[in-house]
Amino acid sequence: MSRARRFLLLSCGLIGTAASAQMTETSSFARPEPEIPIIWLAPPPTDIAIEDQRLPVLTLVLPPPPNPNAVALPPAARALLEQAMSKGSAESFAAVEKLARETYPNGGAQIDALTAENAANIAEKKAAEARAKADALAAASFLDNWKGEVEVGGSLQTGNTHNIAVYGSLKLTREGLRWRNALTARADFQKTDGTTTTDRDSIAYQPQYKFDERLYLYGLGQFEHDRFTGYDQRYTAGTGLGYRLLPGPKIQVDLEGGPAVRQTRFIDGGHRTDFAGRGSLNIAWKPNPNIQFTQNTQVYFETGNNNIVSTTALDTKLFGPLKARLSYNITYERETTDAAKNLDTTSRASLVYSF
Fold it and tell me: Domain-by-domain residue ranges, the chain?
């Protein structure tokens, strides 16, 4: 009988002698001896050779012995973790988790299990919300989901000088599953002692096709009128790529660039069509729910003219949908009439209604 049939090897390193089955003569022929399986609980010693490779081998993997220092979390500590988990906030759970680990360091395994469960619940909730939002946007019509704001400002001066100024703007945006749409319109009018000193209007529409959450393709159609800069009508059509550099909930930064075609009809009756390069930078920063800072800048580079329009604004929430706005606008036009200056600046205070 082989040596491998006579021993059973154990993981603790002990080698016990296995009982061997003896052949007995019950008739004129001998029955074959049954094979005894070898159970390896650990790698076999290298100094013992197994001669018969036909024997079945069964490998068992035993778990490590329990940690003698491991203790169950007290019911009160587990209840606090489960209560924090029910809120669905990663920040709230993290605070309770940190306290539990400091107070019960030996309960780390159970805290790890609850932490993993909480992370899975939050991920599942976010995925469900994203699916619901995508389904709602896909089912909405073009007239749905529009948001906007109306800005109104003005001044009246009487006495030695009679001055009246009116300013208004409208902004509409719509966020779709793949499309984002933006419509803006502005009107600025001022008259001093019966003479018009400011007459500026603009309207622009920009559709955007979103490749993902950051990269998008945009189109642009824009009309402008600025009597004192020297043009009666200016039309702009353009396209290009935009990228959201910072997509966070508190701060968003969009950078755009692309070609454009501009047709200008001047006050004196002349007209001109130019190809231009367009770039824009849009920043929206909301440090808290009551304050918002915005910066919008557009730059056009043409063969015979360069144009820059920049508006910086600070919004403060008053009550409900009503906000107060302080803004500073810069308009630069390299090519103007002889009587007009290249740079105009406007500071204003206005009220904004959001809807």
Answer: 1-62, 75-139, 146-354
